[in-house]
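Below is how a single chain appears once it has passed through the pipeline. First comes the sequence as given, then the structure the pipeline wrote out for it. We keep one example in the README because the format questions we get most often are answered faster by looking than by reading.
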Amino acid sequence: MTSRTEADRMPGQTLRWLALGVVVLLGVAAVLALLLVAGARAQASTESIGVGLITNEGPVNDGGFNWLSYQGMLRAESDLGVVGTVYTATSSADYEPNLQQCVDDGNDLCISVGFGTAEAISNTAPANPSTSFAIVDTEFDSYPANLRGMVFSAEEAGYLAGTLAGLMTQGDVVGGVGGMQIQPVEAFLEPYRYAVQCANPQATVLVTYTGTFIDPDLGAEVAQQQMAAGADVIFAAAGPTGVGALLTTTQSSEWAIGVDIDQYLTVFLSGTIPGSDKMLSSAIKKIDNAVYSTIADVISGTFTSGTLVYDLAADGVGLAPFHEADSFVPQSVRDGLDAVEQGIIDGTIDVYQPCEIYHVYLPIVGRDWSY
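Resulting structure:
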């Protein structure tokens, strides 16, 4: 028997290596094909998600909760590929038909805006268990399995507003103007009071509940009273009544802080209304983030029913930008706000715990109203 030399063996080895290379290349190609198919399926699945937004009374560009909710849906369309539809209500009678139309149109998620839509969504959601529902700024005592209530830690935003006011006041007197003395308003103003006194123990806090949300002239009157008593920063949490307070305060060259949304954009129209330079900030509910997050949960299959609270930790509340006031806010104030925000998030600050018990209420004088 003759033996084979190295030269004799080379062609066989080369063939075996070539064969192995072909197998590897085919395997890689197969994996890539599977990944492409999976990606295409995922994209198709995302594109099939439909989201309906049911506004409260008024247009979608109302500069308020409708507009913020819409911004969240637009971002989901851009980032997540969902298909959004707006169902505009011209009166409260439209809420329930619009919600049902959202279902009938095949949307996977129907979101209604504000407590005014609560009855309509509580009727529609149980009747359509295969569709997910969510409501902005409203919670219920009990929920069907397909309904989420999105609420916001107003008390945390109010506390940040109080910290800002306490650090920015020059005369150690600040004001607060509320609408009706009800829990949603107190959730802003009571932590505001505590935060002012924690940030500035020398400060006096003047708080007035006007008893109404629809009287800008009364809001202006209250703001004038508080400024006459020395207030050089006023926080208004009173709807249109508060708008009167904001305009009077800023146009009197004192600092003002708004509520719910960035009122520099909505009340002062991004700097085109006199007084905008004294609009310090707003204690805001980041409704757009909550809407976006809820849509993302439906896409990922992690949507849950019940009350979901959007707080500082979830980027659900906070302070609006300082805008024109930015150059007047010292770094020490910014550092103080950062420290307080972190303290709220990590639990070392209780926003309902006063640093000293000293409550001052400025009464309305010369005005009679009922509520």
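Residues 48-152+289-300+302-310 form a domain with the Rossmann fold fold (CATH 3.40.50.2300).

See the next section for the split statistics.
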